[in-house]
Amino acid sequence: MYPDRFRLPFLSGVLIAAAERRRPGLGPWSPQVEEQLRKAFDSELEDVRRSFLESFDDPTWFARVAEKIREIALPRYLVEARRETDLEQRGYGLWRGGDLVSRIVWGLGGFFLGVFLVRAPFIPIPTTWDLLAFGLLLLCPFIPDAQIALHKRRHRRALRAIVEDLQDAEAKLELYQPLSSPDPTSAALPAPGESLRQKG
């Protein structure tokens, strides 16, 4: 009915992305931060509304889209944004914040674990696997980075899930049929009576 850039899933993704660009710089979660994110949604939504109405004379349909975004996408985003902000403020729960000392300890711990696994007589690992200890020595210092990557990946999945779940809301929204044509050029076509009078 309308271009994808004005449809519910795409619009929600754009609004969430705009809010996510602002969120990390707003500091610890607070009512003021939540209000800033709500304003980010409203500001972007108003820009899209103006663009939509420049091309299509159907404010009722866009009002329905905006209502669904505020009812479904925005509350779910705020819950996820708060969870992610709290994690970021706590340094994702990393021991010592993943500093140099913690990485050295992780590396040494991995090395001694590898030595134990290879040398322990009751663990069926060939003693020729001495490189396992050195491999753990090199890899374990990156455990903090892996933890952060996993948290960020979960956050991205949660945001994508919000957008994907709006597909159902979009399907219900399509049941609404606008009275006016969505073709932006239709308003420029002359009425049949006017065309006949001009020919006469």
Q: What would you call the structural class?
A: mainly alpha
Give the overall average pLDDT. Answer: 83
The major beta sheet can be summarized as: none
Strand content: under 5%
Number of helices: 7
Shape: elongated
Tell me the Rg in angstroms: 28 Å
Write up what this structure looks like.
By secondary structure, the chain is mainly α. The chain has one domain. Helices cover 70% and strands 0% of the residues. The chain has seven helices and no strands. The chain has helices spanning 8-22, 31-55, 59-89, 100-119, 131-139, 143-173, 192-199. α4 (100-119) packs antiparallel against α5 (131-139). It is elongated and about 75 Å long. The relative contact order is 0.13.
Brief characterization of the structure:
With 200 residues, this protein is an all-alpha fold. The chain contains 7 helices and no strands. α1 (8-22) crosses α2 (31-55).
Compile the SSE list and pairings.
Blueprint: H1 8-22, H2 31-55, H3 59-89, H4 100-119, H5 131-139, H6 143-173, H7 192-199
Question: What are the main properties of this structure?
Answer:
disordered C terminus; 0% strand; 70% helix; mainly alpha; 200 residues
